[in-house]
């Protein structure tokens, strides 16, 4: 069983639309689905949850789903804001590790991002799941091609990268703060749930990977996030379906 985790309904629905669900229900207002992904001779039991935004909801709903489904792995996906200046809209970041950028007990002499008295700071993604994600062919979209035609990337631009993603309970929309986060944490991207879901996965000993598509530049640029959320959601399905095929064909 593979547990698929997303925060937003646009992200979850883009994945939900491609599978037949045996059971769809609501746990205290959060959408849960259980079914079997199939593609010709391959199949893999899956569950899909939509956790809502932010670290608290995403942790709470993920724990509930782990208790219920006892997954062998978690694939989390969705949109993120760019932090690294070389990361562009439509790029994919496969998280090598994740951390909570807004967890601050530095006054106690504890390094920023460390969960006090645990020694836990950056939480690595599962190396096998990262390698599997890095094998997925680079996704394409007409909308992104149109955007690239107007804002051409450097010729050697890498559309997919492996690197740190940081999470916090704020939508980052300030150019100076964006630079600060990039430099302080050496992070490629920012979002609001990855580190909390990774912590729940770690505590429950479930292999975890986070794959995010860049929806905006985290600098307040008008409406980028809403404009590109559709591209991010379709790229999420691209990654999930390729990875499920790899998992199913190995198992
Ligand atoms: N998710 C997508 N874009 C984001 C941003 N700029 N800040 C936090 N979470 C995001």
Sequence-ordered SSE layout with sheet pairings:
Blueprint: E1 2-6, H1 9-16, E2 21-27, E3 30-39, E4 42-50, H2 55-69, E5 73-82, E6 92-100, E7 123-124, H3 127-134, H4 142-150, E8 160-167, H5 175-185, E9 189-191, H6 194-203, E10 208-216, H7 224-250
Parallel strand pairs: 1-4, 1-5, 5-10, 6-8, 8-9
Antiparallel strand pairs: 2-3, 3-4, 5-9, 6-7, 6-10
The chain binds adenine (ADE).
The site of adenine (ADE) has 13 residues, from strand 5, strand 9 and strand 10.
Q: Could you explain the architecture of this structure?
A:
There is one protein chain. The chain is α/β, with parallel strands linked by helices. The protein has a single domain, classed as Nucleoside phosphorylase domain (Rossmann fold, 3-Layer(aba) Sandwich). 35% of the residues lie in helices and 29% in strands. The chain has a five-stranded mixed barrel, surrounded by four helices. Strand 8 (160-167), helix 5 and strand 9 form a beta-alpha-beta unit. Helix 1 runs parallel beside helix 7 (224-250) and helix 2 (55-69) runs parallel beside helix 6 (194-203). The longest helix is centred in the last third of the chain and has 27 residues, at 224-250. Bound molecules: adenine (ADE). Adenine is lined by residues 79-81, 171-173, 190-192, 215-216, 218, 225.
């Amino acid at each position: 069983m593979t547990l698929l985790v997303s925060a937003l309904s646009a992200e979850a629905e883009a994945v939900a639309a491609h599978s037949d669900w045996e059971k769809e229900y609501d746990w205290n207002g959060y959408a849960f689905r259980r079914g079997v992904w199939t593609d010709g001779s391959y199949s893999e039991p899956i569950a899909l949850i939509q956790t809502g935004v932010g670290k608290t909801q995403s942790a709470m709903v993920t724990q509930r789903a782990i208790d219920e489904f006892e997954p062998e792995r978690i694939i989390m996906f969705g949109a993120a804001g760019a932090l690294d200046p070389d990361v562009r809209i439509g790029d994919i970041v496969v998280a090598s590790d994740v951390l909570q950028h807004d967890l601050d007990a530095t006054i106690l002499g504890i390094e920023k991002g460390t969960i006090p008295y645990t020694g836990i700071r950056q939480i690595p993604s599962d190396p096998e799941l990262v390698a599997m994600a890095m094998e997925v062919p680079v996704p394409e979209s007409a909308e992104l091609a149109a955007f690239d035609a107007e804002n051409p990337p450097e010729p050697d631009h890498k559309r997919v990268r492996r690197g740190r993603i940081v999470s916090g309970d704020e939508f980052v929309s300030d150019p100076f703060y964006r630079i600060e986060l990039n430099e302080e944490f050496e992070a490629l991207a920012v979002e609001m749930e990855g580190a909390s879901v990774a912590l729940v996965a770690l505590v429950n000993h479930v292999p975890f990977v986070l794959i995010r598509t860049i929806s905006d530049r985290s600098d307040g640029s008008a409406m980028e996030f809403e404009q590109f959320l559709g591209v991010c959601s379709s790229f999420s399905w691209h990654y999930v379906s390729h990875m499920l095929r790899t998992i199913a064909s190995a198992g």
